[in-house]
UDP-glucose 6-dehydrogenase (Paenibacillus roseopurpureus), 434 residues
Amino acid sequence: MRITIVGTGYVGLVAAVCLAKQGHQVTAVDREPVIRGLRAGVLGIWEPGLEELFADGRASGNLRWETDVVRASLDAEALMLAVGTPTRPDGHTDLSQLHEVLAKFMHHGDCPPLIIVKSTVPVGTCDELEVSLRETGLRTEIVSNPEFLRQGSAIQDFMYPDRIVVGCQSPYAEAELRHLYARIDAPVQVCDRRSAELIKYAANTFLATKISFANMMSDLCEGYGADIRQVMAGVGSDRRIGPHFLQAGVGYGGSCFSKDLQSLLTSGKLVGLSLPMLEATAHINEQRIPRFIAKLISCWGNLQGKRLAVLGISFKPNTNDVRDAPFLTLLKQCQLHGIAVQAYDPVVQHVPYDGVHVADSAYTASVGADAIMILTEWPQFVSLDWARMAQGMRQPIMLDGRNLLPNKAVERFLEHDAAVYIPVGRSVVSCWGD
Ligand SMILES: NC(=O)C1=CN([C@@H]2O[C@H](COP(=O)(O)OP(=O)(O)OC[C@H]3O[C@@H](n4cnc5c(N)ncnc54)[C@H](O)[C@@H]3O)[C@@H](O)[C@H]2O)C=CC1
Ligand SMILES: O=C(O)[C@H]1O[C@H](OP(=O)(O)OP(=O)(O)OC[C@H]2O[C@@H](n3ccc(=O)[nH]c3=O)[C@H](O)[C@@H]2O)[C@H](O)[C@@H](O)[C@@H]1O
């Protein structure tokens, strides 16, 4: 299929390289500086397997780059929109990136026969976009085809999804989408467009709710001396519940969970519904970092002049994305309290904010620190020499915000005099054994 993909952020770029790999003729469109970077081989995104597929797409000739969306789509059979849909300060979804693209086709007076909306858009958006196109005489059909990939495993998720959701109006659109994804072995759920749009929000907010539930239970575990890992293992082994997304910690981050939750709350308001369960999910998440700051305060007493070593800047492992990362919330809170932050991340080497020093190794970050906090569960943190980490610190206090460290690593840390290990939803352990 000849397809033009607009937006080469996370979703657009992954879709472009994967569809090119599957033999489609893909033209990817973005703004001038982004395309200049891509032409020079600069991806801007760190994602396992992406570089290889990118090189593959260039070598095969199946992947081309353009800045002019109309020119890029002249002989395209479909246009896929993967532009950003951020939340505005008033809680409404900002659809200006989508409108900007469609305005170009309306002005041109022609458009590919099919527009596939890959971006996450509020329920009813595809209907509204189609009405606008019709008003200018364009007969293009719009399909809602939400994306469920996760950063850090984006290629794998795109190539081997649990399902493909196609919200469409006609057998023609369904057949085109089945053809586009013919080489992906996954069930295709065909439904109306509004349901497809809502499936995406319901899935993301349900996952966020599972995480907030686990975090709420972890606070209860701390209050009663239970172990959240055991509790969630017992809960998740019920097949009706499942073991995933029950990992307690510093809360969810990333570009989508908070944004999509806000957007769905606004969609609810527009039809007179308050969606209280989602209000609670957001509230619990917002309280995570303040709860960790409170733990630091109870360890340190006086905060002035304290230094915190933070391990993990990206919002999850295997990505360099810091959008809405717990790290950014922590940094703001530390600045308010006058706590100096020295951070380390295996792939994020620069943070565009004041008040943080990004170190070149975990060991350098820990030197002179009054506590360490693990924010991202990068596997390489497990194999650090934790006795060495403790030795370099001013006070050997460790807050494991992801329950990452196995007993052996904790024991090494606790070899140091006065060392304290503070996990999530479990009892605190010190070198004195309590
Ligand atoms: N990041 C993720 O893991 C996932 C994101 N989504 C959804 O996919 C959509 C895209 O997300 P991301 O890739 O993270 O967004 P992003 O913000 O990283 O990328 C959007 C890209 O679109 C480009 N763009 C904007 N307006 C344009 C225009 N008029 N012409 C050409 N290019 C234009 C921007 O320059 C940017 O490169 C959002 O709706 C998001 O909610 C869905 C699933 C996963
Ligand atoms: O719409 C999107 O953008 C995507 O949002 C999430 O994907 P992503 O944000 O990339 O990553 P997740 O693995 O979902 O993690 C999100 C956050 O939740 C946290 N998390 C995850 C799982 C868990 O048990 N506990 C927990 O705190 C992670 O550390 C991370 O900060 C969804 O999982 C994807 O299906 C969806 O396509």
User: Anything to note?
Assistant: The two ends are 64 Å apart (CA to CA). The pocket of NAI (ligand 1) is lined by residues 6-12, 29-31, 34, 69, 82-85, 97, 100-101, 119-120, 147, 149, 151, 255-256 (CB under 6 Å). The longest strand covers residues 2-6. The CA atoms of residues 396 and 419 lie 5 Å apart.
